[in-house]
Amino acid sequence: MLRLTCPYCGAAADETELTPGGEAHLTRHGPGSSDEAFEGYLFLRKNPYGVHFERWRHAHGCGKWFHAARDTRSLQVFGTYSAQVTRPPQDIIDRIAATHPGFDWEAGQ
């Protein structure tokens, strides 16, 4: 079972206490954007077999949204962090790189 720690209230919650929100760090496109950009925002998502950055909501806790970095192959969680940032904290990137040599956050985004 997937277990994540909410970075806001500190509670370790299993996935039944959380609501998934899909891929993290998306560029939002809405009214006024091109049809291609809006289509990409609505429908085109990564679904990697490996390192993935996701949005989660602590639904049965503090109710706040946060991001999690994890490996979809092994369910290894590299860390959780605020949803109000545009990139993962450096310590999480370093943890991923230690397990996945050659991992490059910039290349993956």
From TrEMBL:
Domain of life: Bacteria
Signal peptide: none
GO BP of this protein: tetrahydrofolate metabolic process
Organism: Rhodovulum adriaticum
Any GO MF annotation of the entry: sarcosine oxidase activity
Pfam families from the UniProt entry: SoxD
Protein name: Sarcosine oxidase subunit delta
Organismal lineage: Bacteria, Pseudomonadati, Pseudomonadota, Alphaproteobacteria, Rhodobacterales
